[in-house]
UniProtKB/TrEMBL annotation:
SUPFAM superfamilies: Nucleotide-diphospho-sugar transferases (SSF53448), TPR-like (SSF48452)
Lineage: Bacteria, Bacillati, Bacillota, Clostridia, Eubacteriales
Domain of life: Bacteria
Residue span(s) of domain Glycosyltransferase 2-like: 6-133
Biological source species: Candidatus Limadaptatus stercorigallinarum
Gene3D superfamilies the UniProt entry points to: Spore Coat Polysaccharide Biosynthesis Protein SpsA, Chain A, Tetratricopeptide repeat domain
Entry protein name: Glycosyltransferase
Length: 360
């Protein structure tokens, strides 16, 4: 088949979400490749309504191997990947259509796109990062990593406003799968590189194994590796220390991330929260105020938490200024927060609080 864009997915028991994923993107893909790793539900039947290119792949506890298999079946000039629980909204479908034209005119090797993976109650993205979303098939580097797999971008790289949205799977509970895969590989003698050391530590943290996570993440912070991964490791390491009640260690860890790059908003908010815990209001105000002016580093590979540059520091500043006796500044911060997210639970609470005192 000759075409512009192949879409590749690896799936297993995705009958609840697969149609949602494919409905949003089918109009923009010239072919759809499905690699099924052992579905026992109606996944294949649903997939057959969108494509006849459905292949079985024996699951080997290796996501990179599965993605490489799916990519090997693509025939178009470019390959786009997504997961079955991802969503292309109508607005982003329009952007994907425009991106197709850029593929034809600019001929990139890699297209980097935003990936929104967590959301607030109103559907606003609270956790995002940039991923290699579309790649030129010819001479495409392989996926690497048994978990948290990736392709190292190379060649001509462009950035697009097209955003993939990670959706929920009804009834799905996060388990130990990723952690178990890592530990299986470690037991087999596999040595994790700096990137996967960070991800392994994060999986330990997610499974509430805080002491074990802290040991791994300390190695990630102090060892070799990319500065961005060191900063991210420091953020999660600080969370481990907080969970263990080691607040001074958390503070030292967060301040230590400044060795690797400009202060990140999430780091500044965590520092603010630690000083707030100590009722050191002026110090907390300093760090939360700094968070408001921090940059978005997602284009550099950071995991972006936009709330840490907006509603979180504003709500916390409202509380800290009030506790510090700065009534006027507290009300000003509340008003700014209300303009940004009027229905945020803390904003609603503060509105009632200030109204009861005749300050609004």
């Amino acid at each position: 088949m000759e075409g512009l864009l192949s879409l590749c997915l690896i799936v297993k028991n995705e009958e609840k979400v697969l149609a949602r994923a494919l409905d949003g993107v089918r109009a923009y893909a010239d072919e759809i490749i499905i690699a099924d790793t052992g579905s026992t539900d109606g996944t294949k039947k649903i997939a057959s309504e969108y494509t006849d290119k459905i292949y079985d792949f024996e699951w080997k506890d290796d996501f990179a191997a599965a993605r490489n298999f799916a990519f090997s079946k693509a025939t178009c000039e470019y390959i786009m990947w997504m997961d079955a629980d991802d969503i292309v909204t109508p607005e982003n479908g329009v952007l994907l259509g425009k991106l197709r034209k850029r593929l034809e005119t600019e001929k990139p090797d890699v297209v980097m796109c935003r990936y929104d993976v967590a959301f607030d109650a109103e559907g606003r993205a609270t956790y995002s990062y940039i991923r290699e979303r579309i790649l030129r098939r010819e001479n495409c580097p392989p996926w690497v990593g048994c978990v948290h797999e990736c392709i190292a971008p190379q060649g001509k790289i462009i950035f697009s406003h097209f955003t993939m949205r990670h959706g929920e799977v009804p009834g799905k509970v996060r388990g130990r799968r990723n952690l178990d895969i890592y530990q299986k590989n470690i037991a087999a003698g596999v040595r994790l590189d700096p990137r996967h050391t960070f991800y392994y530590g994060r999986e330990l943290y997610s499974n509430r194994l805080y002491a074990e996570a802290a040991a791994v993440l300390t190695g990630a912070v102090e060892g070799e590796g990319w500065a961005v991964n060191k900063i991210e490791s420091g953020k999660v390491l600080a969370d481990c220390y907080i969970a263990l009640g080691k607040y001074d260690e958390a503070m030292k860890t967060l301040l230590g991330t400044f060795r690797f790059g400009e202060p990140r908003a999430a780091v500044l908010c965590k520092l603010g929260s630690l000083f707030k815990r100590k009722k050191m209001w002026k110090e907390a105000i300093y760090w939360y105020s700094a968070a408001l002016t921090a940059k978005d580093f997602s284009a550099y590979g950071d995991f972006d938490q936009p709330e840490c540059r907006g509603i979180i520091p504003l709500v916390e500043l409202t509380a800290c200024y009030w506790q510090d006796g700065e009534e006027k500044k507290a009300v000003e911060c509340h008003k700014t927060a209300a303009e940004l997210q009027p229905d945020h639970p803390s904003v609603v609470f503060n509105r009632k609080f200030f109204e009861s005192r005749g300050l609004l």
